[in-house]
Design brief:
The protein has 152 residues and is α+β, with helices and mostly antiparallel strands. It has a single domain, classed as Arc Repressor Mutant, subunit A (Orthogonal Bundle). Helix content is 39%, strand content 14%. The strands form two sheets. The protein has a three-stranded mixed sheet with strand order 4-3-5, with no helix packed on it. A hairpin with a 7-residue loop joins strand 1 and strand 2. The longest helix has 14 residues. It starts with 9 loop residues before the first helix and ends with a helix. It binds zinc ion (2 copies). One zinc ion (ZN) binds next to strand 3.
């Protein structure tokens, strides 16, 4: 699990960015790192509340915004759903499961960059890209396969 660039301690990252980790920001960041299921702000709030009972939803939104501005966390938008948050800073795409609604990280194959895969015109300048797949996550795909076998 230590292959990702975010394996660097966050204190290090934070001091590089000249940003201070308050108890609340740390709790929000820990909640994202603890369970990497791309929670929404409300889900983060529910998790953090257990540790920091005085925290408000507005504070969680603020912390998430600061973490995003610092580049420690990425926002993931899908259709019209509320934004989700992802602390995986390695280049990756997202698989949105049409059955359970889960979001799975899909890493790029080693030593590949998006430019090697997509036939981008030579004169474009890409500032940011977001690739999404839709389908079934491994768990739902297995369940669906079992369902099909049962019906036979
Ligand atoms: Zn699923
Ligand atoms: Zn992600």
């Amino acid at each position: 699990m230590n292959r990702n660039p975010e394996a660097k301690s966050y204190d290090e990252t934070i001091s590089e960015k000249g940003f201070r980790f308050t108890e609340q920001r740390r709790a929000v960041y820990d909640a994202l790192m603890g369970k990497r299921d791309h929670p929404t702000a409300v889900e983060v709030f529910m998790r953090v509340k257990g540790k920091v009972p005085t925290i408000s939803l507005a504070t969680v939104y603020n912390c998430l915004e600061t973490l995003t501005d610092c580049g420690l966390v990425k926002t993931v938008n899908h259709d019209r759903e509320s934004a989700r948050y992802c602390p995986n800073l390695a280049e990756h795409a997202h698989l949105f499961c049409e059955s359970c609604g889960g979001v799975t990280d899909i890493p790029l194959r080693a030593k590949r960059r998006a430019h090697d895969i997509w036939d981008l015109p030579p004169d474009v300048s890409i500032s940011h890209h977001e690739i999404s797949f839709r389908g079934l996550c491994p768990k739902c795909a297995k369940a669906a396969a079992r369902q099909t076998t049962k019906c036979k």
